[in-house]
Amino acid sequence: MSALGHLGSWCLTAGRRRSIARLFLICAALLALYALSKSRPQVLEGPRPSPEDEQRLERSAAPACPPSECLISAAKGGRLGNIMFEYATLLAASHILQRPVWLLAEMKDILEKYFEPLSTPALPRGCEYNWTEISIDALIKNASKDDEQSYLIGGYPTSVHLFHPIRDRVLREFTFRPELPLSADRRLAELARQVNMTSPTFIGVHVRRTDYAQWLPKMVEGRLVDRDFLERALALMRSRHRDALFVVVSDDLEWCRRELVSRANSSDIVLAGDGVQSRPGADLALLAACNHFIITHGTFGFWGAYMSGGEVVKPTGYGQRKTGVENNVRHAGLNWTWIEAFTSQTTAEAAEIVGGRRSSKGTTAEPVIRH
């Protein structure tokens, strides 16, 4: 056979071999797909369940409701500062009465946006109870271990004197989610660099205004503290801490910029919070990371100071009656410094403003400290 014939025969044989190989690969792929399809669970078509059946299935899958007797919980009211007071008061009730307590699901949801999962269980949604709403003082006075009623603590409690004995437990419950203190520490370091301070003592300053302008006259026949109080509080803290850096957080940052930062013309005062009330966690973590505190009004500032654990300067005498927070902080024996909200100078200026006359700018008076 010629060389050409041998070449043609070899090409024909090679072509057949390639065809057989391709056929083998195709068969192997088909077998693999068949085996995979057999391993998957078969979906059986059938009639869809009715809405009533679906509701029954949801109820059977939901957690069981605890018995309706002997429950203690707390009503959710107000913003984050109020809700933290309500939970801390609930913990105090459990400690004092030696009875288990439950959180309402909506309260647990709000707190766990900012804090690590809480130890107190939440009542499942959809459970209905015949609550007896009661103040914390009446509950402690009247309830007993054998009492089968279910109580809901109400009335916006500020029971510092009741939960301060279990402060360590309360603060463990209010352990921030990790990202919040990390962000606060970065922010404080950034603020220190901005004013060229290497190792400042951070003084948190919480200035609550907005809604308290209406709340104070109605609830304690009082009025907001003004720039004069803040200037005296700043001077007192400067006398205690020469390396102070004042970190201002407020629900009215524009007022603070105009009345506090611009007028003081001092590099040791910085605006730090974002003032957005719908996401308070970042501001609270920032305040809690400070060393010491100046606070004006409200429950939010209290928690920043209480979690921080440092020195606290707070006004007194801004209403005809003391607020519940002031009464209970004093009752708890917290070593806070109270200074007069208004001096004779600011009282005279306030009278002039009410009378429609322009007030004159006075000098900063020495703080009058009350114990």
Overview of the structural elements:
Helix content is 49%, strand content 11%. Strands 6-5-4-7-8-9-10 form a 7-stranded mixed beta sheet, sandwiched between helices. The termini are far apart. Strand 5 (244-250), helix 11 (253-264) and strand 6 form a beta-alpha-beta unit. It has helices at 3-39, 51-61, 80-97, 105-111, 136-142, 160-163, 167-173, 179-194, 212-220, 227-240, 253-264, 281-288, 299-308, 324-332, 344-354, and strands at 72-74, 132-134, 151-153, 201-207, 244-250, 269-271, 292-295, 312-316, 337-340, 369-370. By secondary structure, it is of the alpha/beta class. Helix 3 packs across helix 13, helix 8 crosses helix 12 (281-288) and helix 12 packs across helix 13 (299-308). The protein has 15 helices and 10 strands.
* Major beta sheet, strand line-up: 6-5-4-7-8-9-10
User: SS-based structural class?
Assistant: alpha/beta
Mean pLDDT: 83
What is the approximate shape? Answer: globular
Give a summary of the structure in a few sentences.
The chain is of the alpha/beta class. Helices cover 49% and strands 11% of the residues.
Topology:
Blueprint: H1 3-39, H2 51-61, E1 72-74, H3 80-97, H4 105-111, E2 132-134, H5 136-142, E3 151-153, H6 160-163, H7 167-173, H8 179-194, E4 201-207, H9 212-220, H10 227-240, E5 244-250, H11 253-264, E6 269-271, H12 281-288, E7 292-295, H13 299-308, E8 312-316, H14 324-332, E9 337-340, H15 344-354, E10 369-370
Parallel strand pairs: 1-3, 2-3, 4-5, 4-7, 5-6, 7-8, 8-9
Antiparallel strand pairs: 9-10
Helix pairs in contact: 3-13, 8-12, 12-13
